[in-house]
Design a protein that fits this description.
This protein is an alpha+beta fold. It has one domain: Gcn5-related N-acetyltransferase (GNAT) (Aminopeptidase), CATH 3.40.630. It has helices spanning 46-56, 61-64, 120-134, 149-155, 171-192; strands at residues 9-19, 34-36, 76-81, 84-92, 103-111, 139-146, 159-165. Strands 2-3-4-5-6-1-7 form a seven-stranded mixed sheet, with helices on both faces. The chain is globular and about 40 Å long.
């Protein structure tokens, strides 16, 4: 594992909380040729988005299909180099840990391996913080099972909250997933009839 490989998976989830007013991010800029994607661009980079998510996450469908609590059309935050997707994250206006309407969550940070170490993620993250503030959020949860990211988040002002073992799911999440499977099974049976 390379030192700059912040997307490499670790064996547990580390959950941090960032009060947005306490964000201490970098002032880095994107290098020439790189730009933040506007919302209309997502439809043209869907295959790249899927490929990069699959590279890192077993549950890639959740962000790809907008199946995250508090999902909005503006949830994806991507950086492009020309027409090529380089990296991204998903900001949601709700979180999986409590019902506080002032706390959102950042999900599924990813980066094309070719572009790691260029400061791109710091710009993506700063954009997420600015967007979260514009939504009226006071803070975001950062739930990561990725190498280096928790330490980076702490440098940017987040504080450690707790660790979760892999496979941890709340009772509500397990029930929802069981219901989804049952509904999908019934819809398949109905289509066969």
């Amino acid at each position: 594992m390379q030192e700059k490989d912040f997307c490499a998976e670790i064996d547990e989830y580390i959950v941090l909380k960032l009060v947005l007013a306490e964000y201490k991010g970098s002032q880095r800029s994107l290098l020439p040729g790189f730009e933040l994607a506007d919302l209309s661009t997502r439809s043209t980079i869907r295959e790249s988005e899927k490929s990069l998510l699959k590279l890192y996450f077993r549950n890639w469908e959740a962000p790809y299909y907008g199946r995250l609590k508090g999902w909005r059309d503006e949830s994806p935050i991507f950086v492009l180099k020309g027409a090529r997707l380089v990296g991204g994250i998903y900001l949601c206006s709700k979180n999986e840990f409590d019902e506080d309407p002032k706390w959102g969550q950042l999900h599924y940070a990813f980066m094309d391996p070719e572009f790691k170490g260029l400061g791109i993620y710091s710009v993506i993250f700063r954009t997420a913080v600015t967007r979260a503030q514009s939504w009226g959020l006071e803070g975001v949860y950062l739930n990561s099972d990725r190498h280096i990211l928790p330490e980076v988040y702490e440098r940017w002002g987040a504080v450690y909250w707790k660790k979760l073992k892999k496979g941890h799911r709340g009772r509500k999440q397990v029930c929802v997933q069981c219901l989804r499977r049952a509904i999908m099974g019934l819809s398949k049976i109905t289509k066969l009839s």
